[in-house]
Amino acid sequence: MKSKFLNLNKIVLSIAVMSLVGCTNLDEKVIDEVMGTENADPEASLAAAYGQLGDGTFVDHGSVFALQEYSTDEAILPTRGSDWGDGGKWRAMHEFTWDANNDVVKTTWNQLNSGITKSLFAIGSINKSNINNKTLFLAEAKGLLAFYTYTTIDLYGQAPYRDPDNLNAPIQIRKAESTIDALITEVEGLIPNLADIKTQNTHAGRFTKQAAYALLADMYLNRAVLKNKTAGSFNFKEQALSGGGNDMEMVIKYSDMLINGGLFSLESNYFHNFDINNDTSKEMIFTIVQKKNSNRNADNDLAYMSMERIQKPSPDNRGTNANCVTPEFYYSWNGNHDDPRFQRTYQYEDGTWFRNDGTDVSVPSTSKVEGTGKPWFHFNRGLQVGQQYGPKILANGNFDLTSDGRIKVYKLFTEKNTTLAADFTPELNFDNPSEAVFTQAQINRGVRNFKFEFDPGYGNNGTSGMDVPLYRLGTIYMMRAEAFFRNGNVSGALADVNRLRTTRTNDALKNNAPGVALTSLDADALFKESGYELYWEMYRRKAMIRFGKFDLPGTAKPATQPYRRIFPIPQATLDASKDFTQNPGY
């Protein structure tokens, strides 16, 4: 068990270290300062701690994403005919039937524990070294430890810890209710030693002062919840740990530092934040860097999982017809389909629009996939509903082209039921309303989310060049809006919500029209706005708990007890270690 790593003796720990060093090559997008080979261990250990962010943990649909999104009204992964049964582990996330033996719960726990372990080892390794930039690297390693620990206590209510400077130290269990204050204090203490973003060769993939501000705003926003997650209500205006204000005032303070600091600005094209080249987005505060030719692990799941198998961005790629949004989330957009964050139509360089409405005959084949030179068919972005259209693959494995070399556009039918139109319906209508199971004749159901750009430069799901945002400026505006609202400043909250709505603009097919400002704001409207800005960014579960929505019934979900707001410690961990105790209710 990865959680047992913290108790390993020096010999086994040394082997583990060599394993980390052996499988982790540090490129310029991880740690830019390359040090001498005699100091390779601290460098590699910090690279390993960063690398765990993208080693499935925050980039694969089946880890943190599954727990933070499949458990909410934003996302569901049903069984579709013969696909995605997998012992019911995916359905359990939405049906709230998970237990301590669920593979998704166990995988996520292990990956987060691995991040904690690698961060602890990096701290110990850097502490023992005399490397250049020691103070900076140590602060970054401690920042990563805080981020992994915060995520773990949010999901599981407890997290492991060991003194990084004592290989024989016993494991400690950090409980959410006491650890949240300690984490806030620790991260605040790191700020003087962290670099400002884009100084000392840093970038959004490094834990900078700005990443710390974002994490602190997040922790203060959720501090009351973490202190008693199963409570009937939360005191969001508790006295802050420092500064004399309350929790919401601290969210506002750290948000102000990011919003007013001049380092970031909102993108008018909302979907640029989720493009393959989103490293050029001006919103990125803290991301998981995923780039071609990088030795770091990466994943295309955020785009691949929602796309139908018949939808092919290139002759070598397809989707997998898995997850979708729920009717509740889709219909929450009623009256807001002109919001620039809802959907965006793709325009090719020659002016051709892919309208995806049955009027398309062909699109240019001049857009090419890097590395293969094959044609790249660009699907639209955002929430995709209704009949879908796209290219067809010929027996020779290439797109069907017109006589002048353009890609023909066809009405699409599902790949595994070739007479069933690929018509993405808002309603799911399971035969058994409490079980998210479709027959083979129903596998087209569910509005799909194409928010994240599919990277066709790799095989099928493969990897991606899209950096996964953990904190971006839109996140901060939304957190500050909520903090204003909970602190009684509704006009301030409305101003932040409207800044997001009106800064985003539609595509030229809609005359680049900006979003429309709201004239009023209440708690339900604010909750909806949170979904519009942050859907599928591993934010929804926390928001639903804060807004009192998480326990309510929904599609394939019964009304549930508050203990479900925390996931169980995996049974395998309990069997292997006496240090952990199971969370109540499991």
TrEMBL record:
Subcellular location: Cell outer membrane
Cross-referenced InterPro entries: SusD-like_N (IPR033985), SusD_RagB_dom (IPR012944), TPR-like_helical_dom_sf (IPR011990)
Annotated Gene Ontology cellular component terms: cell outer membrane
Keyword Metal-binding: no
Primary localization: membrane
Entry keyword set: Cell outer membrane, Membrane, Signal
Record has Mitochondrion as a keyword: no
Residue intervals of the RagB/SusD domain: 282-586
Domain SusD-like N-terminal: 38-221
Family from the record: Belongs to the SusD family.
Protein name: RagB/SusD family nutrient uptake outer membrane protein
Protein source organism: Chryseobacterium panacisoli
